[in-house]
């Protein structure tokens, strides 16, 4: 049998740190204690000039480095994001070009905050079916670009960031089970509304276009139920018992949501990993960033059973049960950073040459058409 195993991991957040006190300075009716008590969040990182692709690129490069994988050997890139650089082409295609993954397909996947776990399940399915051997899965978002900084019910919750993993074919169990779901009847509870092009042309735009809106109380009740149900489903499907779960990594939206979910599951809090205090809700990036930090903190060792559970706009949800088989990466040689830098520069050179080649061909083609006329 073919299994999909996590072999590498990476993360990246912007350099600009925003602590809770900053919202007080902005004149919001709030305080550090008010935010922390209700959400567990003390700070978050907010992007400046960095795009979603910039964040995703750094996380992807680290995941490739940790796994010892060359970008050219990646078969598929799945980028979970609801804040792409542009409507089209996909932001994943920009990553494919910038890392030099010349043999990889690339696509974006939008399931909002549940996107990374969705993409992880999709990537594992490609490996298990034999259609791919190595898949790069990334979760990256910049929800700060869609926040109303006068709305304390939303702007204090979110941060920007990216996380990535490399999935590889293995003969040992890795991804054990997965589930995905959606209830579109609740789509209006959490959304970033946008006007249709013809509406803008007619000068009519819906109120709140471009700003994230959320019905907090309803999302809270729904999220604690669905994350627990999704986690229970993959635990049962994987053949595990609850007491065999070594670590639970939920979507890092709100500390109270995570604690309530763990209580519904019957899991002790010491088995729940949380870093929402440091990063806030980073949407599709939250679980891969938490996974990265769990490894760094020594919370994961070979053979551990891990459950990931997430929820997001849509209303969407997804969960995965996996067996951690990746060892802590071997020490790289002193030449490893040089090789990493060289590969990045070679990818940039290749991209430039390809663009120049297309421009030359277009010029020659235009001249030939003129001569023909």
Walk me through the structure.
This protein is an alpha/beta fold. The protein folds into 2 domains: 3-323, Thiolase/Chalcone synthase (Peroxisomal Thiolase, Chain A, domain 1, 3-Layer(aba) Sandwich), CATH 3.40.47.10; 331-373. It has 12 helices and 13 strands. The protein has helices at 21-25, 32-39, 52-67, 91-99, 115-128, 152-155, 197-201, 216-237, 255-265, 276-279, 286-296, 336-372, and strands at residues 3-12, 17-19, 43-45, 76-80, 105-109, 134-141, 161-170, 175-182, 190-191, 213-214, 247-250, 305-312, 316-323. The strands form 4 sheets. It has a 5-stranded mixed beta sheet with strand order 1-7-6-4-5, with helices on both faces. A 4-stranded mixed beta sheet has the order 8-13-12-11, with helices on both faces. Strand 12 and strand 13 form a beta hairpin. Helix 3 crosses helix 4 (91-99) and helix 8 (216-237) crosses helix 9 (255-265). The longest helix is centred in the last third of the chain and has 37 residues, at 336-372. It is globular and about 75 Å long. It starts with a strand and ends with a helix. Residues 197-208 have low confidence and may be disordered.
């Amino acid at each position: 049998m073919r299994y999909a195993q996590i072999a590498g991991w990476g993360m990246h957040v912007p350099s600009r740190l925003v602590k809770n006190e900053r919202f007080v300075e902005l004149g919001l009716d709030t305080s550090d204690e008010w935010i922390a008590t209700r959400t567990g969040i003390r700070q978050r990182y907010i992007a400046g000039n960095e795009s979603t692709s910039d964040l995703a690129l750094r996380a992807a490069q680290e995941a490739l480095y940790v796994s010892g994988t060359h970008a050219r050997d990646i078969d598929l890139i799945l980028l979970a994001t609801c804040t792409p650089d542009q409507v089209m082409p996909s932001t994943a295609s920009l990553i494919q070009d910038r890392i030099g993954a010349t043999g990889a397909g690339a696509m974006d996947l939008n399931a909002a905050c549940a996107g990374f776990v969705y993409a992880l399940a999709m990537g594992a399915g490609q490996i298990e079916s034999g259609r791919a051997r190595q898949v790069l899965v990334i979760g990256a978002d910049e929800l700060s670009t869609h926040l109303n900084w006068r709305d304390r019910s939303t702007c204090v919750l979110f941060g920007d960031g990216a996380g990535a993993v490399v999935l590889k074919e293995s003969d040992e169990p890795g991804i054990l089970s997965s589930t995905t779901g959606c209830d579109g009847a609740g789509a209006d509870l959490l959304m970033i509304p946008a006007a249709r092009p013809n509406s803008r042309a007619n000068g009519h735009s819906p109120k709140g276009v471009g700003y994230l809106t959320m019905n907090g109380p309803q999302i809270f009740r729904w999220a604690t139920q669905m994350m627990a149900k999704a986690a229970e489903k993959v635990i049962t499907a994987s053949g595990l018992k609850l007491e065999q779960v070594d670590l639970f990594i939920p979507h890092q939206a709100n500390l109270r949501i995570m604690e309530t979910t763990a209580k519904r599951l019957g899991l002790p809090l010491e088995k729940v990993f949380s870093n929402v205090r440091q990063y806030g809700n980073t949407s599709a990036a939250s679980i891969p960033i938490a996974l990265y930090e769990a490894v760094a903190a020594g919370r994961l060792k070979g053979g551990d059973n891990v459950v990931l559970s997430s929820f997001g706009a849509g209303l969407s949800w997804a969960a995965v049960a996996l067996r951690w088989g990746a060892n802590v990466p071997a020490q790289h040689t002193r030449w490893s950073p040089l090789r990493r830098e060289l590969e990045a520069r070679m990818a940039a050179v290749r991209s430039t040459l390809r663009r120049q080649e297309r421009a030359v061909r277009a010029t020659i083609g235009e001249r030939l058409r003129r001569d023909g006329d």
